[in-house]
Each structure stands twice: as C-alpha cells, then as structure tokens.
Amino acid sequence: MCGIVGYVGGKNAQDFLISGLKRLEYRGYDSAGIVTLDENGEATLLRAKGKISNLEEKLAKNKREDKIGIGHTRWATHGEPSEINAHPHQAGDIYLVHNGIIENYKELREHLTEHEFKSQTDTEVLAALVNSFYGNGKYPLVNAVVQALKLVKGTYGIAVLSTKNPDEIVVARSGSPLVIGVGTGETLIASDASALVGHTKQAIYLNDGEVARITKDSVEIKTLNAEPVSAKVEEIETNLAAIQKGGYEHFLLKEIMEQPKSLAETLRGRVNLEQGVVHLGGPGLSEQELRKIKHLIIVGCGTAYHAGLLASYYIEQFTPEITVETVIASEYRYRNAYIPENSVALIVSQSGETADTLACLREIKKQGTKTIGIVNAIGSTIAREVDGGTYVHVGPEISVASTKAFTSQVMAMVMFGLTIAQAKGAKPGSLKLYVEEIAKMPEMIEKTLKDVEGEVKKAAEKYKKYEHAIYLGRDTAYPTAMEGALKLKEISYVDANAYAFGELKHGPLALIDDRFFEVALVPEGPLYDKAISNVQEVLARGGHMLVITDTDFNLPVDDVIKISGELKIFSPILMNLVSQLFAYYMTVAKGYNVDQPRNLAKSVTVE
Ligand code: M6R
C-alpha cells in the first residue's frame, strides 16, 4: 500500500526513482509521481494516474540529469485516484511524499490559509504545514519538518525536499516504514527494502518518532524531541533473484512453486528428526516460561489469520492443557478482551507492517502479555516490536495473494506449539509423528505440486464459468477451506466462501444450485465418514462438486483431485496447494491481473 523512494548521490535520480517504484508496484497503487531537483533547486515534477508506464511516458519527454529526488506510488485514501491527488505534493519550496493517514488534516487545513490547495489529500496539508514552518528557507528543513509533525495526529512515513536545499532529503516515520540505504557517495530511501536491492546492502531502518536528514554521504537521525539517535546499520539479505520472476509468467506461480524451498528455509536447523523434537530459538522463552503457558492468542489478518486458525487446531491436538484462540486483528484491537495470566500472543504477519495487526500487538503489550512474532519481512515494524520472534524466512512474497507465507506460518506455529509441548513434558514418542511429517513436508509439497498441476489447470478451465463457489471442510480442512476460498475470491473475483461441513444444514445448504460450484476438502481421518455424508447432502441437492482428497473417493461428484495419502496429519496443507493452483489457473483462464488484483494492496498499512 503506497510506496516511497528517494535518491541523493552522483547518479541519475529519475532512473533510480522509476526503477524503485517499479519494485514497489506489487504493493498496490493507483497513481505515481516523482520530483527531482537540479543543482539550482529547479524542480521537475511528473505525476500520472494509473500504471508507472503512464509516468514513464511523461518522463520520456522530461529527461533530466538531476541527482536528487523523491517518488511515490499512491493508493487513494483521501480523494480519488487522479494526477492532481498523486504525490509528490508541493507547497511553496516544499515537495513531499507520504504514506499513512493524517487524521487531523481538516483541522490543520483550516489554519493554512496562505496556501492555495489543489488536491483533496491529507498529504498536501502536511506539505503546506512544513512550508509554513520553513520561512522561505530561513530555518533548517529538518526543523520545519519536526515542527509540523508535532502537530500531526495519525500515521506517516514521509520524504521531503526543498528547492532551497537541493542536496538534502528529510525523512520521518510514525507507523509507516522507511528504510535508508547507505551507498558509496549516495544515499537511497524506500518504504520497502526491496527497492534498494542491487544498489546497496547496508540499510538503516528508521523507528517511529525518528526524523533523519540525509545527504549523499551522511545520515543524521534524531527523535522528534531532538535527541540524537545513533544509526544501526543492518544487512539487506534479499538478493535480486528473489524479487524477479525467474522464468515464471507470474510471481504467484513462482511463489507457489517455491514452497518446497521456502518451507525448507523455515525448518532449517529447527527440526531434529533423530530425537523427534523441534528447536525454536527465536521466541526467547525459557523452559520454565514455556511450561507456564496456559493460553495462546494468535492474531492476524486474511491469510495470516487462516494460518493461525489452522495452527490452533494442530496445537490443540498435542497440547491439550492449553487453550488456543485465534482472532482477527481488526476486530480484536477494539474488543474489550480479557487476557488471562500465563498467556502468550503470537502475532502473525508476512509483511510485518499490517496496521491492524500492529495495533493489536501494541494493545496486547500494554496488558503485559508476552508477544511472539511469526513474521516474514526482516526488520519490519512487527518484527522489531515483539518481545521475541520467529522469522519464517520464505523470502520476498511479491504477489498480493499470500501463498508460501501461509504454509510456513502454519508450520512455524506448529513448531512453537511443539516447543511448548516438549517443555511441558509430552510423553516420549507422542510428538514423533508430527516431527517426522514436518521434516517430510518440503518433499511432499514438491511431489504434490508436480502431481496435480496439469489436472488443476484443466479443472480451472472447466469451472471458470461459475461466479459463485463454496469451499467446505471439517476439522483442519475447515481453515484450509477458508484459505482456499480467500485465494479464489481475491484474484479471480469469484464470490467464494467457506463453511464448516457441519454448518451446511444451518443455512448455506439453501445456496446449492446451478450458479454455484463446491470445492470439498476431504482428508482421510476420524471425520472422513461425516464429511462423506455432507458431500452426499450437497449432491442430493444438485451440487457441482470438485473434491480434493488424499484417499479413494467413490461418490459421483463432478471431479476428484487426489493427492498422496502419505502424510496423515498435515495432508490439508498439501490440499491447500491444490487450492492455490486452482485460484491461479482460474485467474489466468479469466484473464485477470494475477499478481495485482483490483482494489487490493500487498501490505495493508492503513486501518
Ligand atoms: O502481511 P500480512 O500477513 O499481515 O497480511 C495480512 C493480509 O493482508 C494478507 O494475508 C491478505 O489477506 C492476502 N492478500 C491474502 O492472500
């Protein structure tokens, strides 16, 4: 959601800004813009509605050799997507780009009578506010920014340029990420480290409440209260290959196919097959603290929530003495929920920047509850604010639809649950099957993807005529069905919803008709027969059903996709691969934008 880039150095700023914005395209946007300054401070402002290619058309007629500039991809919050509302916004000498939301912008705008507003955005208000403290260059830019930010309520990551000082950029953050890339004779900024890959490996992650003055060879950071901050330079681990399609037509397919490797990264060094145990160092809890845990609260949004829900079913299986509750972050943050003593909260987020999840983390911490991150993006805000954490290490997930992160989030949480069970003295051997299956997962994922891809592609062609889908499952196949339905709806725009099989008779059964098709997840196991009865109920009412199973299936459904029955416990996770591929091929068959579905952003950094 929204992207920021910036450059000051010896190279062409326009080139970096455009290539950086393209790297951030995956986050979702509806307009884009850049501004650069020449050595006299003369500005070239280019903005366009729609894709970055529209901006590039303008750029072709306005090429400059400027060595400093800032750029932005906008995801509309205040004011429609349009060129006039696109960033950067100008006020007097100031150009400013902004991620986040200025909540008191209306109130602030009323006092800024000297500025003639052109857009409907909260960002132009911030630009005008900075300009009002700048005194035509009488005061340092950084001071003007600090003065302005002290009046602001809301969230922001900003980058600011002044035509009076064409050799510095001022950046600041509160609730919206900003990374400073330290190069040789150049300094770069971005809201996401992926824009810096290939330019520098050295990064400084700005913290909330910090402001930095940046030149081509210096970074000075202080807090809004003027306390100096000594910058911690960290290594960017991502390489170029990780953010390229690598021969695949879409990032989504690449990320689905990457899962044997990405899960192997999650498991690396954490599974001891010989002893039948897992070792999860990240959470940083002592054996005694682990033994004391009585409640787990798992918090996430979207796919991360589904991963949490699925993990909760597993954790309950082998740690019956603790209760596990999985909650949707946007709801939980406003509930008056009582967190009992001896609770631990798992904060699940691929991006580590989701606004609602972050807000929950902060609420939960206020109550004194220990928080553990299950995060992918290294150095992200959630990763930095939790008390301890486990990175899932799946590498950058570029496609808006989350796939490889889901698989690894579930397994990381299952491993955390096993760590608790081990500390609580689970009977020797009782966890063995879990550990064995975890170790086998990467290989089984590889096999499943190979086995089913062709069949799934055909099925997608067949079912693409439907506009409505119902996903069904019981037990661990139920959260898996929820995830399958989310995948289908978000990229192929099919109205897909998931129900627990047992809920069918309580309402959803009334939906069954020729407008709908059903996807039933039916793993072998204690509830197999019950699921079979439910399938019959749907068939008796004229359903059109695709069954995903790991065992023989003899009912007269429309289609059956059978995966290997080798995994007894984690089979639903393999079934989810079928759902992922199905959503992918359905979207391709319908001709929609696979990696950037309409109206969505990869990282939801506003509420
Ligand atoms: O980055 P996060 O894991 O916190 O993101 C949470 C959701 O926004 C995300 O999973 C979303 O639901 C995906 N687009 C689903 O594919």
Task: Write structural notes for this entry.
The chain has 607 residues and is of the alpha/beta class. It folds into three domains: 3-243, Glutamine Phosphoribosylpyrophosphate, subunit 1, domain 1 (4-Layer Sandwich), CATH 3.60.20; 245-426, Glucose-6-phosphate isomerase like protein, domain 1 (Rossmann fold, 3-Layer(aba) Sandwich), CATH 3.40.50; 452-595, Glucose-6-phosphate isomerase like protein, domain 1 (Rossmann fold, 3-Layer(aba) Sandwich), CATH 3.40.50.10490. The protein has 17 helices and 27 strands. It has an eight-stranded antiparallel β-sheet, covered by helices on one side. A hairpin with a 4-residue loop joins strand 16 (271-272) and strand 17 (277-278). Helix 9 runs antiparallel to helix 15 (477-492) and helix 15 packs parallel to helix 17 (571-590). The termini are close together. The mean pLDDT is 95. The structure holds 5-amino-5-deoxy-1-O-phosphono-D-mannitol. 5-amino-5-deoxy-1-O-phosphono-D-mannitol (M6R) binds at residues 301-304, 349-351, 354, 357, 400-402, 486, 490, 603-604.
Can you lay out the helices and strands and say which pair or pack?
Elements: E1 3-8, H1 13-23, E2 31-37, E3 43-49, H2 52-60, E4 68-74, E5 89-91, E6 94-99, H3 105-111, H4 122-134, H5 141-149, E7 156-162, E8 169-174, E9 179-182, E10 187-190, E11 202-205, E12 210-215, E13 218-223, E14 228-229, E15 234-235, H6 251-257, H7 259-267, E16 271-272, E17 277-278, H8 287-292, E18 295-300, H9 302-318, E19 323-328, H10 329-332, E20 343-349, H11 355-366, E21 370-375, H12 381-385, E22 388-391, H13 404-423, H14 432-463, E23 468-473, H15 477-492, E24 495-500, E25 516-522, H16 528-540, E26 545-549, E27 559-562, H17 571-590
Parallel strand pairs: 18-19, 18-20, 20-21, 21-22, 23-24, 23-25, 25-26, 26-27
Antiparallel strand pairs: 1-4, 1-10, 2-3, 2-4, 5-6, 6-7, 7-8, 8-12, 9-10, 9-11, 11-15, 12-13, 13-14, 16-17
Helix pairs in contact: 3-4, 4-5, 7-13, 7-14, 9-13, 9-15, 14-17, 15-17
5-amino-5-deoxy-1-O-phosphono-D-mannitol is lined by residues 301-304, 349-351, 354, 357, 400-402, 486, 490, 603-604.
